[in-house]
TrEMBL record:
Protein known as: GDP-L-fucose synthase
Pathway info: Nucleotide-sugar biosynthesis; GDP-L-fucose biosynthesis via de novo pathway; GDP-L-fucose from GDP-alpha-D-mannose: step 2/2
Coiled coil region boundaries: none
Superkingdom to which the source organism belongs: Bacteria
Top-level EC class as recorded in UniProt: oxidoreductase
EC number: 1.1.1.271
UniProt keyword annotations, A-Z: Isomerase, Multifunctional enzyme, NADP, Oxidoreductase
UniProt-annotated binding residues for NADP(+): 10-16, 105-108, 140, 163-166, 179
Protein's organism: Spongiibacter pelagi
Stretches assigned to the NAD-dependent epimerase/dehydratase domain: 6-228
Any one GO biological process: 'de novo' GDP-L-fucose biosynthetic process
Known catalytic reactions: GDP-beta-L-fucose + NADP(+) = GDP-4-dehydro-alpha-D-rhamnose + NADPH + H(+)
Active site residues of this protein: Y136 (proton donor/acceptor)
């Protein structure tokens, strides 16, 4: 029996590296990866040549230009251009070279700014997007519609998953550009090392957020990719393509901070700066479709934060004090 050749685009990122760790466990899989230096995904000719030469069976499209609010606001042209080019090049080259199965990884920012909670798949394109990351969101929506359109016209099996807030090993711990969990973890760790008496968290602590460990995201992605087509279609019609991935459970920022304090072992006080903005009151995915497909998240927040902190302490990521 020949091995299944699986290309993971974005294998050095948080999700891509988790997919590599998981898929490598199956001896029937042959994992294909390329660094940016080896393959520029914005270069259409290079991507076409790569697919023509490598006889790929499955594609996990986890490559993307990503960043926080500041980066999205500062570089909107780069965010929409680079993400559209990556998706266009990979999806079309996959189709042109006979790849029947592909999984596109999107983002919860595809949903309208004031969408009803929890967010259902049907809410896509029903209202206005959040202005700060609209270019990125539009690129991700285009990726969903590319998969949907190629399925309809060419009869391939290209699926899409939309994750909630992700965290875990290989996350970005940059002091200015990281998301809430890595930013908070770094702050608590440095406070512990420095012997600080308090850690200040922005806002009231009341907003609610959902967090999914990246190993769960990888497991859900592989589960969705390998579902029988009739099972997938039965749970995604009439929408045709995308499925939410999350825990279906959220917590307040205060609860997250208290759990983080315990995991890191910080013994000082927790202070909330209520002069700072809270942001959206709640962001929670409706994951009933995914649950009906037979997958439920298994990594608890405490377990996931502990795993991430262990990685943070032992990794080679640069930590400045």
């Amino acid at each position: 029996m020949s091995k299944q050749r699986i290309y993971i685009a974005g294998h050095r990122g948080m999700v891509g590296s988790a997919l590599v760790r998981l898929l490598e466990k199956d001896p029937n899989n042959e994992i294909i990866t390329r660094t940016h230096a080896e393959l520029d995904l914005i270069n259409q000719q290079a991507v076409n040549t790569f697919f023509a030469e490598n006889k790929i069976d499955q594609v996990y499209l986890a490559a993307a230009k990503v960043g926080g609010i500041h980066a999205n606001n500062t570089y909107p042209a780069e965010f929409i251009y680079e993400n559209l080019m990556i998706e266009n090049n990979i999806i079309h080259a996959a189709y042109s070279n006979g790849v029947k199965k592909l999984l596109f990884l999107g983002s919860s920012c595809i949903y309208p700014r004031n969408v009803e909670q929890p967010m259902k798949e049907e809410a896509l394109l029903t209202a206005t997007l959040e202005p700060t990351n609209e270019p990125y969101a539009i690129a991700k929506i285009a990726g969903i519609k590319l998969c949907e359109s190629y399925n309809r016209q060419y009869g391939v099996d290209y699926r899409s998953v939309m994750p909630t807030n992700l965290y875990g090993p290989n996350d970005n711990f940059h002091p200015e550009n990281s998301h809430v969990i890595p930013a908070m973890m770094r702050r608590f760790h440095e406070a512990k090392i420095n012997g600080d008496k308090e850690v200040v968290v922005w806002g009231t602590g009341k907003p609610m957020r959902e967090f999914l460990h990246v190993d769960d995201m990888a497991a859900a992605s592989v589960h969705v990719m390998n579902l029988p087509l009739e099972t997938y279609q039965a749970n995604t019609q009439p929408m045709l393509s995308h499925v939410n991935v999350g825990t279906g459970v959220d917590c307040t920022i205060r609860e997250l901070a208290e759990t983080m304090k315990e995991v890191v072992g910080f013994e000082g006080e927790l202070v909330f700066d209520e002069t700072k903005p809270d942001g959206t009151p709640r962001k929670l995915m409706d994951v009933s479709r995914l649950n009906e497909m037979g997958w439920i998240a298994s990594v608890s927040l405490v377990e996931g934060l502990s795993d991430t902190y262990t990685w943070y302490l032992t990794s080679k990521c640069e930590i400045r004090y």
